[in-house]
Amino acid sequence: MQIKKHPILGEKFTEEITFYFNEKPLKAMKGQTVAAALMRNGIRKFGVSRKLFKARGLYCANGRCTSCYVTINGLDHVLSCSTLVEDGMNVHSNESDPDVGGIYN
Amino acid sequence: MDKSTIVCRCEEINIDEIENALKNGAQTFDDIKRLTRTGMGSCQSKVCLHPVREIIADYHNKDLQDVGISRMRIPLKPIRMGTLATESKDSNVASVFGESVEEGDENR
Amino acid sequence: MKTDLLIIGAGPAGINAALTADAAGAEVILVDESLQPGGQLRQQTQLFSNLPKNKKKTRGTSLNNHLVESLNASNVKVLSNHAMVGSYLNGNIGVTDGFKTFEIHAKKYILATGAQEEGKIFPGWTLPGVMTAGAAQILINRELVLPGKNAVIVGSNDFAFEVIKQLRICGVSIKAVVEDKDQLQSEKQDLLSDLGNITFLTNSTIELASGSGEVEHVSIRTPSGIKELEADFICISNGFTPILEPFEVMNCKFTYKEILGGWLPAYNMNFQTTNSNCYLAGSAAGITTLGPILLTGEIAAWSVLEELEFISPREAHNQKKECWEELMTLENNNVFQKRTEIIADSLLQDNWNPKSYFTELQGGQIHG
Predict the structure, then answer these.
(1) Largest CA distance in chain B
(2) A13 to chain C: which residues are within 8 Å by CB?
(3) Which stretches are transmembrane (chain A) (predicted)?
């Protein structure tokens, strides 16, 4: 849920962009983090935990807890709270530990 | 509280597992870490440090100030191996990587 | 990369230290892992009083804009989106931008890495929708996104009340404030009166947060039985503790003061840690309020400037004396008291008083 006009800060973002979450197109504002872009669209489950596969989402929003990991443009385990969303960005939920080698293969 | 409540979010270690480590003689955070993997996940004990210290204090009937902290190591943040081993000439880490690769080549 | 002074953390303390050092002619690099400088001040829309130099009451966000503007107008080299990853054997700090890692060699370091929010464990606290109060504040004030519609707040400290107020004006309904102690923790009565009809549950804990992949339902254990609530997010406000890991890898010794946030690096009256090249400032030196945070940054910078001979010992003395006296006035008495205990320890003394310390020093020892 986007706050259209913040009671203290007013309007902050102007440009609307489109990104994809698990292939589905979604709208966000340029300048928002990926985590905020997902939550704006009501998506709060960003992935699962590595051992018990339990739902995970934004917890600390400060890049410390690593609970908000997602895969961005093929690169897994990216902190969605500390990465800005971009037009055309492909975001996928974090479903497991990475394959050894990953993007650097 | 329910003993199955998760304390370490990253490695998903619950209160029961931590208390079991304490029953087996664990005194410090690092003892618990070695026995259970608590604090060894992606956040490196940033989130669970103080909750675990509280469990230790309760179990050993100590004041919180008498329960120390975990050993915190480099890298301070999750970092990709490729980023850590950049080509940058002034990186000690890169030079260590370079040397080990060369040694491996010689042994072939 | 080489510089006179490397500061880690571009919150109010780090920025103020950087501006002070820059104005005196030192070369400064300021590293911060966030996308923009400002630290946690970026989303503090509440009003702050008790600021240094008789600055009038101001919103955190306005003060932040002012600090960042000054920073942009200065010669400080700001590396945003760069994180400290560790230190090398030669004492240099390793920094990464996510693609490459490089060393920065500085003559002196100031770690102004701030504090983190403490969690509070309860069954279901790992579910999406459970977040720190600070995370909710970032969402509404930085991102302009609502974390949900109906909130349960765990904890009742000052910060919890500030965030409740900010959530409410954005349209969030506060279903309950859950406090495990027998009374509310905030002493700010003016905040309480503003809050209107909110259900406060003392002596209470969360029995279970549940839902399908995210928080939908909260069960609260109260003295009068279990209370069931429909809520879609939970904010945990359990206080702050200094961030420790940068100090550990810089080989700084720690001490313990509960009121300052528990474990924290030990330091002297120059905000110098037990590693003589490494200083600290802000919440890393103990949890306090905004005015003192700004002042500690300044004291650390004056100390570094003196050490690197950018200013004379006399000027350093006068500047530090002024800052310490202001700190003594602005800071909560109990917090200030514990801070002086840390400094007394560093001097192997029973106590330390800034007034008598600086006055005695002035009695002939200062030259220049």
Answers:
(1) 58
(2) 144
(3) none
Find chains touching chain A: ≥3 CB pairs under 8 Å: B, C
**What's the total number of domains in chain A?**
1
Homologous superfamily of domain range C2-116+240-362: FAD/NAD(P)-binding domain (3.50.50.60)
Predicted pLDDT at C190: 78
Burial (CB count within 10 angstroms: exposed 0-12, middle 13-18, buried 19+), residue C131? buried
Would you kindly state where each structural domain of chain C is located, as residue ranges? Answer: 2-116+240-362, 119-236
Q: Which residue has the tokens 């007034």?
A: C355
The answer to whether the beta carbons of residues C321 and C328 sit under 8 Å apart is no
Instruction: Please report, as a single letter, which amino acid is at residue C202.
Output: T
Q: Domain residue spans in chain B? A: 6-66, 77-108
In a domain, A36, yes or no: yes
Interface of C with A in 277-316 (CB under 8 A): none
Task: Give the domain C119-236 fold.
Answer: FAD/NAD(P)-binding domain (3.50.50)
In this structure, the number of other CB atoms found within 10 A of the CB of residue B34 comes to 14
Give a yes or no: residue A3 inside a domain.
Answer: no
Which positions ≥6 away from C96 have C-beta within 8 Å?
A: B77, B79, B83, B84, C82, C83, C85, C102
| C249 or C360: which leads in pLDDT | C249
The predicted model gives B84-95 an average pLDDT of 57
Cα atoms found within 13 Å of the Cα of residue C36, Cβ hemisphere only: 16
Neighbours of B39 (CB within 10 A): 26
Q: For B10-36, how does the pLDDT look when each residue is reduced to its tens digit (9 = 90+)? A: 999 999 999 999 999 999 999 999 999
By CB atoms closer than 10 A (0-12, 13-18, 19+), residue B30 is middle
A79 within domain boundaries: yes
List CB contacts (< 8 A) between B75 and chain A: none
pLDDT at site A102: 54
Which CATH number describes the domain made up of B6-66?
Answer: 1.10.10.1100
